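Honest question from a wet-lab person: if I give you the sequences of every part of a complex, can you actually get the arrangement of the whole thing, not just the pieces? Trying it with mine:
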Amino acid sequence: MEPGGQPRSFQLPSAIEDVPGAENWRSMYPYFTRFQPGDDNRFWFYNSMHFPEPMPAFDAITAEIPYTAIGANTTRVFVLPTTLGIEHRIVNGRVYITAIPVTDPEEIGRRAAIFNERAGYYYQNWDRLYEGWKARIAGLISEVEAVTVPPLDEFEDPRVVTESTGVAQNHYVRENFHRCLDLFSKMWHHHTEFLMLGYGAYVVFFEFCKNAFPDISEQTVARMVAGIDVIMYRPDDELKRLARLAVESGLADEFPEGCDPDAVLARLAERGEVGREWLAAFDAARHPWFHVSTGDGFYHHHLSWNENLAVPFAALTRYVRQVAAGETLERPTSKLVAERDRIAAEYRALLATEEDRGAFDQMLGVCRLVFPYVEDHKFYCEHWFTTRFFQKIRAFGELLTSRGVLEEAEDVFHLQHYEIDQALADVMLAWASGGEPLGAAHLRPIIAERKRALEALRSWSPPPALGPVPEALNDPAVQMLWGITQDTIESWYSQASSDNEKEVRGYAASSGIVEGTARVLRDVNEIGQIRDGEILVCPVTAPSWGPVFGKIKAAVSDIGGTMSHAAIVAREYGMPAVVGTGQATRRIRTGHRVRVDGDRGVVTILD
Amino acid sequence: MISPHLTRPLISLRSDDRPSVGGKAAGLGELAAAGLPVPAGFAITTGAFRHALQALDPDGAIPRQVGGLPADDDGAIADVSAQVRSRIVGTPLPARLRDEIADAYRALPHQPGPGGPDRPGGPDRPGGPDRPDRPDRPTGDVPVAVRSSATAEDSGSASFAGLQDTYLWVTGADALAEHVRLCWASLYSVESVTYRRHQGVPEDGLAMGVVVQVMVDPRCAGVLFTRSPVTGDTSVIVVEASWGLGSAVVSGVVTPDTYVVSRVTGEIVKRDVATKLCHHQRNPSAPGVCLRDVPPALRDVPCLEDGEILALADLGRRVSDHYATPQDVEWAIHGGSGPQIVLLQSRPETVWSSRAASPVAAPTARAFDHVLHRLSAPGRTAAP
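Yes, you can. This is the full assembly:
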């Protein structure tokens, strides 16, 4: 409470006005995503970590499905004692979330009994279950890759008759579309299967280290936990391998800075045996490693490297130059492992009691047990699977386009998946009847309107939080997955209510202080704009942003904690980083002179 | 009885010489012998003190008189201690002692540099290795610091460490002899006598050593704690630093910069650059030290570079490793183009070390029980 007795509050959801020019945004999302009057009494935060842009209508499925999966996992499967699931709301195209806590001690106890049994089973059988997980997720990826879109030729395939299958292909339009959604849902259930148990191990170890060593930096704790041989590094490692091969094969001159990937590939095809060998290696690397998304797998337009070769080529050409200049690009993994183990051993030795050392060993052991899942699931789920999923939806968009319903395949993403069902039914009926689908006249104006609205929504800067300031944030999911603590909320609140427009505060994620010119990038497709020595300011980074860290001298993000991608990579590059600011991209403009203080977690606008 | 040594070089001393030279001198000798950078100097032994006291007070009247004072008679303590102090200050040193101190003084080098094998910040500094230590050996008297060196923690002077028994920029053998007597007299300060009377410390055999060291004219100075004084964290080294002499930091007249360094990773975890309004400097017009305003342009400037912070942390690590216990260490950086760090004193940390270590957590039956317990606990806030 403020001294005056007024409850402290962020802006209330009901007080948010429609963005001019986007008054129709509600039509893009299902009714169950709307803020309700009672929601004014609850604390919400903007999930800019996963949803840094306004949601196109179809892409809202990347909120709907994950929250059905993670909520089922925490509420019903593992029965977490202190939290149920996550609710989400969309306003002006932005996704806000909140967790439903369990506060009644009796209820916590009842749930804890079930939770201990179930979570215990997973920890006790972790490696075996994780092996099973990998097999199952590989199966789901194969399944989604195998989904076909019926061509709806004029006459049915004769085998329908000769093998008397009994079912015409228009049936499979809906079935296969639903198969995509169903597989996406199953993938998300797998994604969340180990999630809370994995992050829970991290949180326990972090808290222990903070208690035993109050001045330890979160980066250092993260370094003790971190795996070195992580699958998310693989795509970048493949580029380095290809760069070395190019230099060794005398092909370095084919990779000038800013080259056009298609032109390079075409020229290499004419460079004889060495050119063909390089292209063969390149093709081998593309599956699966170039299925890595240029985003985090939450937007259809976050294309994979395979779909936007300019992104890997930006890094590849730099690596070729570095190899040609005699630089070693390999990460010195055995050295990194030795250093990680030295740090852990020295902190262990500094602990005051033998009991502490016993607990430390146990907690670190659990972290290292869960680490492969925590680090690697993203590649399988958000990248490889999701890249393939969006490609399939796009293929259904092509069907709708070829049947005259849509103007272009990409327009399919401006329809809710429920609306796509209707459009496909329209096409199925028309193919069956021999008539014409009616969708063009109905859907095209809606899509045009939504495209305009989405553009208008981009200009809105969503507040980091809505509703009353919570007295205590105790939801483990929110803390673990979003890195949001009471401190975060206090810093948002003090920023929302303070006049200091020159300071943006977040987590001190990587130490050091530098000044420089800011470059605000809203998504990874803009990374071509970055200039050497600039300071990156972005909503959130993902592995596909990797190439940018070779150029910048500091990184600032809206969302993320100590284990976020930007934090990890910044530490590896030894550059200052402030993450989880909530609003850096809103407050800082490209061209601003800024000082990034990675020790205190403060970004100061100097202009 | 005359001790065989009236003065001894610091480098020859070790911790177990404490009874004969006092804790400060023994500690500095221990540091110097461990290869740590300590300004060159010598100790005047407790034997020298007894020798002088014997000459001054052959019948033992002073210990009898002081020892007979009631602990709560403030007036009598003030009167008697003032008389004793003025006798000590006013009586010239015995000739043999005076000559030996003067000889040791004249043998001092004119540079404070430790001359130890691993001077910090040496080779990498501009002009480091090739820079001659004594380009033009001055012929005049070398300024020294004269500091009392008590033989026991309970002598009382430990509680009043700092300015009162430390004299800086003392120049010339005569001035040195005078300041040695001032140091000795501090044994009879009102505070020290009151303390001894309250604790019932006997006056017989009371003695004090004195440290004489080549004066350091520091650009900045401060204290480094090999265990955080704020949090008790043993994994960090905390460096407090301000402009000029370290006395400004020790006496608390200035809020120093604070740097926290991980002793494991060498990472500078925290930097608090304070607004440093004043500093202690050599008084240009009189012997000793004066308090001056820091020029405005320097007030908010960090007084250490990263390399210096790390070099200090490294020294802190070596000191605490040497003693195998956390230490509070006074240090100074002097010199311009080839700055050097010197250590001026190291004391065992007492506040946190005196507390019983209670475990943060204990092992559980199964390792993952830690996680189960945490996820079952309501109302906690997490770190990451």
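Two things worth pointing out. The two ends of chain A are 35 Å apart (CA to CA). Chain A touches chain B through 70 residues (CB under 8 Å).
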